[in-house]
Amino acid sequence: MSENYDVIVIGAGPAGYVAAIRAAQLGLKTACIDDFVGKDGKPALGGTCLNVGCIPSKALLDSSKQFHNLTHSFAVHGISAANPSIDVNTMVGRKDKIVKQFTGGITLLFKANKVTPYAGYATLKANRAVSVKGLDGTVTELTATNVIIATGSVPIELPFAKFDNKYIVDNAGALDFTSVPKRLGVIGAGVIGLELGSVWKRLGAEVTILEALPDFLAAADQDVAKAAAREFKKQGLDIRLGAKLSKADIKGEEVHLTYTDAKGEQSLVVDKLLVAVGRRAHTRGFLAEGTGVNVDERGRIAVDEHCYTGVEGVWAIGDCVRGPMLAHKGSEEGIAVAELIAGKPGHVNLDTVPWVIYTEPEIAWVGKTEEQLKAEGVPYKTGSFPFAAIGRAVAMNETAGLVKVIAHAETDRLLGVHMVGACVSEMVHEAVVAMEFHGSAEDLARICHAHPTLSEAVHEAALAVDKRAIHKTN
């Protein structure tokens, strides 16, 4: 006899585990199935984000930033240290300890909320039956009134640069180098490529990033993208645009790359190659025949605006559905779906989901870019303000970057806020709140901001929309 649940969640990443906890909080008998195995060979909750994504990458970014500051930035403060060095194994060990702390934390949260975890591979069958093949090979049959699919995403592998986990790696492999590679090649100048490229560049690697697109950070507002590109160039990141990789051959202990750009065929030799050309929905193998769940041309599970698949009691959230592949977007969808199942209102506004790239300087934005608005024919006005004119930024020696505010030309409603600079991953949420409440540039301009703070740049940029910034000549 199979065990029956009110809710079964397939996947324990930031979408799935959050959905499971919220469902349990609402009094629903809940189970969560996940097949991720940690470095210690044991089941590990948290999915890609906590195990090999968001959390470990931020740990390495912080460690590498501290080392870079010691070797490059502290002298201006009068701080010096003789012959600084970094122990990569200690750095990676710290990262692993942080990962274990958070994955273990989810286990405790499951216990506290009475969520039943299953370690294994799930297959959704017709009528919301779920078969779980345990990591030990045993099979358990479950049924549910509602099933939430939260299977996440996996790295896209290039056919001519397949992962061998030694010389050609994905994001997980780039988190576990045992030493600083002398020459690191990165395919893709997106979030993962820039963040992990920055980590190893700060520690001394010669980093070359090949990006197939002709524009840098095409998804970001181009004023912000150009400002970021200037800073990355100063840091020594070699970013080559319009560079399309065609071959990656491992020869001895080197990776020989062939790519084409505007000048024709080029070659590059590196010691390690990180392939970071994007991710695809991880939906293969989870759906048996007869479920009725549809998958689109990109392998994503088809859902409506409420994450409903159209099949009674079956929902899907996170990276395996439409929308940005962001952990926080998946978590909000998980909460919304759990609440909808419990008969409560639940909704996620994809137009106000913030984006962040944790480079140095950080890049963050919410809403539309100027390029998108121009293409859509929406009348707009803009205001921007540089961190170089912000007292707190100067005191911190973090003057790179700017804040750009875009508002509707007629109604003044905020359409987008874009930032590059120190701590903008935290600052962007002021704009998110304002946009959620349908705020205007005038609203931001009339809010008193503490002085001296970095957030004064948001205030001044909002004032600049109507050409009345105080500390800038318009």
TrEMBL record:
Enzyme Commission identifier(s): 1.8.1.4
Annotated catalysed reactions: N(6)-[(R)-dihydrolipoyl]-L-lysyl-[protein] + NAD(+) = N(6)-[(R)-lipoyl]-L-lysyl-[protein] + NADH + H(+)
Enzyme superclass (EC): oxidoreductase
GO cellular component: cytoplasm
Binding site for FAD: K58, T151, G152, S153, D319, M325, L326, A327, H328
Cofactor: FAD
Catalytic residue list: H451 (proton acceptor)
The name this protein goes by in its record: Dihydrolipoyl dehydrogenase
Keywords: Cytoplasm, Disulfide bond, FAD, Flavoprotein, NAD, Nucleotide-binding, Oxidoreductase, Redox-active center
Organism encoding this protein: Tahibacter soli
GO process terms (BP): 2-oxoglutarate metabolic process
Residue spans crossing the bilayer: none
GO terms assigned for molecular function: dihydrolipoyl dehydrogenase (NADH) activity; flavin adenine dinucleotide binding
Name of encoding gene: lpdA
Subcellular location as annotated: Cytoplasm
Lineage, uppermost ranks: Bacteria, Pseudomonadati, Pseudomonadota, Gammaproteobacteria, Lysobacterales
